[in-house]
Amino acid sequence: MAEAETHVATPHRLPVRRLVAASAGNALEWFDWTIYATFSIYFASAFFPGELATINTFATYALAFFFRPLGGMLIGRLADVRGRKPAMIFTILLMAGGSILIGVLPTFEQVGWLAPILLLVARVAQGMSLGGEVSNASAYLGEIAPAARRGRYSSFFYISTGTAVLLASLLGFTLARVMSEEQLYDWGWRLPFLLGGVLGLVALWLRSNLAETDQFEDNKSTARRVRRPLLTTLREYPKAVGYLVGFSMLSTLCYYTFFSALTPFAVNTRGADDVDVFLALSIATALFVLLQYPMGALADRFGRKPQLLAWSAATAILIVPLSSLVRPGFWGLLVVFGVGLALYTAMTSIAPAIMSELFPTSVRALGIGAWYNLTVAVFGGTAPLVITALSDADASVAFFWYVAVGAAIAFLVILRLPETRGTELR
Q1: C-alpha span between 168 and 421 (Å, rounded)
Q2: In this predicted model, what pLDDT tens digit does every residue of 399-424 receive, in sequence order?
């Protein structure tokens, strides 16, 4: 009698070293990008004179965002035709260089208007860098993942992002505790930027050992034959572009509301203590990081669409009531940051997976880079500027209604989004 064949399933092992190497560079990118908004309350007057120093600093922040689509398009195209690895190394050099430049810049008092001009140059370099980084890291994580585990692999993108933001927040909390306000306003704000530049060397070393993805190697000749690739994404994949813009609008508003705009808003407008704000944001960010992998696994099991619908609906309903808790007092701030960021993990845990599943390999990095970053420029780069302007006009609650409307629109877009759980990349 023939013996029955037995098949023993081999447990899947995550390629941790590869995931860490890809994500470490992303962490640096987001650390350098985030500390600008986090420490803006201290260095605004160093680069801009007068009462409009803060709003001019945020205008520079917003302007840099409009170079993100250019970076996403140019560096994304580089990634599609030359490889994910060289593109990701290039983004590290741009971001770390910009961070070091900001850390050593002379002030307005020392060199006049040359100071804000040099600040803008550094931010433009960082804007282009981040535009290329998001698309390349997302494509890389999506392409190395098995179809049934793409959500889990994708979660490492925002594990690294959240860790970087947490480090920036903890650094702000620590410096606020150990340094006087005079020291922070005078020179203490430079330390995070210099640290970001040093960390760039570590990230550069890690990425130098990355292997290319099989998806890129199999499709690079096809990518090189594509003419007018940006037009190709619109002509051949218009629904993908529409879906990407729709859910990225709300994702962007959530990110820059909780990680950037609320910190100066809580301190400067609502009178909250900066130590309380940094501590509440740090705890909530730790929760944000811890929830990424479980939420990615949940999407691999039950699908992307239910998770995204729950996130957009809850944000539309809760964002305005949460805004009333942004005031002096630690516990109210913790509820705002904790609830907002916990809901946001439903999206962030699977963002690279969803975006990678929208476009074929030959235009994946460019398609994500151009349209995602254009959306971020419009809705994210202006978020701190809008909330500051509305607060100055005693209409701060209008900003949170603005986010609620964005959430409602995203919900309607996601209703039409096809379910892509378990599908092979095109």
Answers
A1: 34
A2: 999 999 999 999 999 999 999 888 88
Domain definitions of the chain by residue range = 16-415
Residue 5 has pLDDT above 50, yes or no: no
Q: How far is CA 265 from the centre of its chain?
A: 20
Name the residue among 197, 64, 190 with its Cα closest to residue 124.
Answer: 64
What is d(CA 18, CA 88) in angstroms, rounded to the nearest whole number?
A: 14
Among 36-50, 153-167, 207-221, 281-295, the minimum mean pLDDT is found in: 36-50
Q: Are 217 and 383 in contact (CB under 8 A)?
A: no
In Å, the largest CA–CA distance within the chain is: 92
**Whole-angstrom distance, CA of residue 47 vs CA of residue 28:** 24
Distances (CA, A) of 167 to 125, 163, 164: 22, 6, 5
**CATH of the domain spanning 16-415:** 1.20.1250.20
The DSSP result for 127-172, as a single string, is HHHHHHHHHHHHHHHHHHS-GGGHHHHHHHHHHHHHHHHHHHHHHH
3-class SS letters over 93-104: HHHHHHHHHHHH
pLDDT at residue number 299:
96
Using an 8 Å Cβ cutoff, are 382 and 62 in contact? yes
Q: Are 233 and 373 in contact (CB under 8 A)?
A: no
pTM for this model (two decimals) = 0.83
SS3 13: coil
Cβ atoms of 351 and 54 within 8 Å: the answer is no
Token pair of 393, please? Answer: 């006009």
Q: What is the pLDDT of residue 210?
A: 85
Closest C-alpha among 120, 108, 106 to residue 45? 108
* 342 CA to centre of own chain: 16
Residues 6+ apart with CB under 8 A from 29: 91, 92, 95, 129, 130, 133, 164
CA separation for the pair 407, 405 (Å, rounded): 5
Tens of pLDDT, residue by residue over 231-268, are 999 999 999 999 999 999 999 999 888 887 788 788 88
